[in-house]
Amino acid sequence: MSDILDLCELSPAYVRAIAPYQPGKPITELAREFGLDERSIVKLASNENPRGLSPRALAAIQAALPELARYPDGFELTQALSQRLGVAMQQIVLGNGSNDVLELAGMAFLAPGCSAVYSQHAFAVYPLATQARGAHSIVVPAKHFGHDLEAMLAAIRSDTHVVFIANPNNPTGTLLTAAELESFLERAPKNVVVVVDEAYNEYLAPDLRCPSIAWVERFPNLIVTRTFSKVYGLAGLRVGYAVCRPEVAALLNRVRQPFNVNNLAIAAAVAAFADQDFVRESYALNVAGMAQLLDGCRRLGLAWIASYGNFVTIEIPRADNQSQAGAVFQKLLRQGVIVRPLANYGMPDHLRVTIGLARENARFLEALQAVLKD
Ligand SMILES: *Cc1c(COP(=O)(O)O)cnc(C)c1O
Fold it and tell me: Among 52, 279, 285, 292, fewest CB within 10 Å belongs to which?
């Protein structure tokens, strides 16, 4: 026993101090725990696309199966991204999910003695990517649950190498306008890397999107990250990417595993990216589902944080000044509905709910109504 403890002491203190990422509860696990039928369970906990993936992506996966003995080649995906986004192929770095790309930014730019700045209630991967490098986290208090860019600017120190910004943010759904973000980029020190994480970009109405890709030309310190996990429905395959200056991409590539994105993921992403009808339909479903959920919340007298993603974060009223969100989460589980508690994001009174199919949203609202009444 003490041998193994001594062994663990070999791990740097900053690694041992990491609080592990808490994923949404898997359907299979809930089914096992409560003896429920998997098909009766509604999971609205991880911001996945409730429609699944594009049939064209599924066909591409099947077609790629015989090639699995070969190492992957990201050329075709990088080329498709480069053409559509209007950047050079050397400006794109593929990741095993955009999570991987966020880690690459940490690996390439952070080390003990440096700091990273990010917002309170921001995406959980920023503290992980920072701590894993032994860098110091500067967590800036949120403003109305969103990023306070003025305070973030003021928090940048001479040892700050990276600023992480999620736009829209998860788990709050808050959005920064293009003017706000542009002004931040104009004023941020040029020797600080600014990572703008746009995992939910495709869920934004076109007029709310930032010209972030074009900004890479103007702001050499900008890294934009996007993912195939959300609107493209490929969360289980793990594909994301960064767009940045070629010199920055070259650094990310130095710390990237040579074959970090697998064959099936690449094939699926190429097909999914080509299927923009699927993206449009998913977007439309999200708009309708958001209206349905918000209407339900309104009828239940619940408050929520205005969200620009494929999820909404709802406030669960306290009872006797005691937080009820954890208990409501547990009771929803018993009804076969999985949502996301946010206590580990410092939001003990909120639950995050992914916009599902119409019938899933209805199931959630019924279950929530029943739980709140009892
Ligand atoms: C879901 C999400 C990601 C994407 O994660 P993947 O690793 O691409 O699956 C990145 N950033 C935010 C803010 C997210 O919510």
Answer: 52
What pLDDT shows up at residue 188? 98
Q: How far is the CA of 131 from the centre of ligand 1 (A)?
A: 18
Q: Which atom of ligand 1 is the closest one to the Cα of 101?
A: 7
For residue 229, the ligand 1 atom closest to its alpha carbon is 9
Would you place residue 5 in the very low, low, confident or very high pLDDT band (cuts 50, 70, 90)? confident
CA of 339 to the centre of ligand 1 (A): 17
Verify that 185 and 241 share a domain, yes or no.
Answer: yes
- Cβ(260) – ligand 1 distance below 6 Å: no
Query: In 3D, which of 314, 293, 304, 307 has the Cα closest to residue 357?
Result: 293
| Position 340, amino acid | R
Q: Ligand 1 pocket test: pick from 98, 196, 307 the residue with the most ligand atoms within 8 Å of its Cβ.
A: 98
The atom of ligand 1 lying closest to the CA of 235 is 9
Residue that finishes a domain, picked among 226, 254, 275: 275
User: What tokens does 364 get?
Assistant: 């959630």
In angstroms, what is the span from residue 374 Cα to ligand 1's centroid? Answer: 35
Q: Quickly count: other Cβ atoms within 10 Å of residue 133's Cβ.
A: 23
Atom of ligand 1 nearest to the CA of 99: 7
**Whole-Å CA distances, 279 to 53, 130, 163, 256:** 10, 32, 30, 29
> Taking 70 as the threshold, does the pLDDT of residue 1 lie above it?
no
Does residue 247 share a domain with residue 117?
Answer: yes
239 and 311, same domain (yes or no): no
Sheet with 350-354: list strands edge to edge: 303-305, 311-315, 350-354, 340-341
pLDDT above 70 coverage of the chain, percent = 100
Task: Please give the tally of structural domains in the chain.
Answer: 2
Domain span at 330 = 2-51+277-373
The whole-number average pLDDT for the span 202-218 is 97
